[in-house]
């Protein structure tokens, strides 16, 4: 069984333990695909360049990044550049034969570019144009499986390959959680989403209210209703992963000891395919890009 691991890009996330855990799993013969976020690093780089990050709210209430042309240039520089290279370097120092990839390499992550998004401003619905983001519609699983069978550990980041209406492709932004979800679904893998909290809480301010697991639609409804802020996107991505064929999804702390191994052993909040209601089995929710 393959494990897809997503390391969050929040400042409070320390990837060191997860990278050591990846090395242990690979040494034991497990296949691991590592993916990562990096919104904090992108925002910091934008500010260093004198640009202000732009976030918008969709009519559905989901807050996400608006990626204009200048922001897209920074994404190309930071995500498959510094962040991905740093992780590959660290894994090699752990004895892992890692290969860095962006979603544009070998059509790894491909979909449709959204040049405009629907947003809500001052209580009104509007169309905001000039966006460089997209929705992932296909994953080149053969590429990942070829690397894994050759003894390599893929390290994947956005951007992804976005199809233009008039033809051709453009590198576009996509939410890193949803990219990990798409990969996990395509590989029918377990997905471990590592973040700066120990799971999903019924009360976001009270760690003791953590959901241990959800295996029925009713249990998943409780988890989804409780999710707030950044966790809303992770729950959305988890649902997409399960709909796509993932074996399970666990949201857990990146800062725990052996965070991946412990997540696969029941730490964090685990969501299983049984959470999908029959009527939703063939539907994938699509919100504005993050």
Automatic annotation (TrEMBL):
GO CC annotations on file: cytoplasm
Gene3D superfamilies: Acetylglutamate kinase-like
Reaction catalysis annotation: [amino-group carrier protein]-C-terminal-gamma-(L-glutamyl)-L-glutamate + ATP = [amino-group carrier protein]-C-terminal-gamma-(5-phospho-L-glutamyl)-L-glutamate + ADP; [amino-group carrier protein]-C-terminal-N-(1,4-dicarboxybutan-1-yl)-L-glutamine + ATP = [amino-group carrier protein]-C-terminal-N-(1-carboxy-5-phosphooxy-5-oxopentan-1-yl)-L-glutamine + ADP
Subcellular localization: Cytoplasm
A molecular function (GO) term: ATP binding
Site residues (Transition state stabilizer), renumbered to this chain: 6, 234
Pathway: Amino-acid biosynthesis; L-arginine biosynthesis; Amino-acid biosynthesis; L-lysine biosynthesis via AAA pathway; L-lysine from L-alpha-aminoadipate (Thermus route): step 2/5
UniProt: substrate binding residues: 65, 173
E.C. designation(s): 2.7.2.17, 2.7.2.19
Keywords annotated in UniProt: Amino-acid biosynthesis, Arginine biosynthesis, ATP-binding, Cytoplasm, Kinase, Lysine biosynthesis, Nucleotide-binding, Transferase
Disordered: region residues: 264-290
UniProt entry tagged with the keyword Cell membrane: no
Domain Aspartate/glutamate/uridylate kinase intervals: 1-252
Keyword rRNA-binding (UniProt): no
GO biological process: L-arginine biosynthetic process via ornithine; lysine biosynthetic process via aminoadipic acid
Biological function: Involved in both the arginine and lysine biosynthetic pathways. Phosphorylates the LysW-bound precursors glutamate (for arginine biosynthesis), respectively alpha-aminoadipate (for lysine biosynthesis).
Family: Belongs to the acetylglutamate kinase family. LysZ subfamily.
Name of the protein in its database record: Putative [LysW]-aminoadipate/[LysW]-glutamate kinase
Lineage of producing organism: Archaea, Methanobacteriati, Methanobacteriota, Stenosarchaea group, Halobacteria
């Amino acid at each position: 069984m393959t494990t897809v691991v997503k390391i969050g890009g929040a400042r409070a996330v320390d990837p060191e333990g997860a990278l050591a855990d990846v090395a242990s799993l690979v040494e034991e013969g497990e296949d691991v695909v590592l993916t990562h976020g990096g919104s904090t690093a992108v925002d910091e780089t934008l500010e260093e360049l004198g640009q202000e990050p732009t976030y918008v709210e969709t009519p559905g209430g989901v807050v996400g990044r608006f990626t204009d042309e200048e922001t897209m240039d920074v994404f190309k520089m930071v995500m498959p550049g510094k962040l991905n290279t740093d992780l590959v370097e660290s894994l090699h120092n752990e004895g892992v034969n890692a290969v860095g990839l962006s979603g544009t390499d070998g059509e790894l992550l491909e979909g449709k570019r959204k040049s405009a998004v629907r947003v809500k401003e001052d209580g009104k619905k509007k169309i905001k144009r000039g966006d460089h983001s997209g929705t992932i519609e296909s994953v080149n699983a053969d590429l990942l499986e070829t690397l894994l069978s050759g003894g390599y550990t893929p390290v994947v980041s956005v951007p992804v390959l976005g199809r233009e209406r008039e033809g051709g492709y453009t590198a576009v932004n996509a939410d890193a959680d949803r990219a990990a979800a798409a990969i996990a679904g395509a590989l029918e893998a377990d997905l471990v989403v590592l973040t700066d909290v120990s799971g999903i809480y019924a009360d976001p301010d009270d760690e003791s209210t953590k959901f241990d697991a959800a295996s029925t639609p009713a249990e998943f409804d409780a988890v989804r209703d409780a999710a707030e802020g950044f966790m809303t996107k992770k729950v959305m991505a988890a649902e997409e992963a399960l709909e796509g064929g993932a074996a399970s999804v666990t949201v857990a702390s990146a800062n725990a000891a052996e965070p991946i191994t412990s997540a696969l052993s029941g730490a964090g909040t685990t969501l299983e395919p049984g959470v999908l209601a029959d009527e939703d089995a063939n539907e994938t929710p699509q919100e504005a890009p993050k």
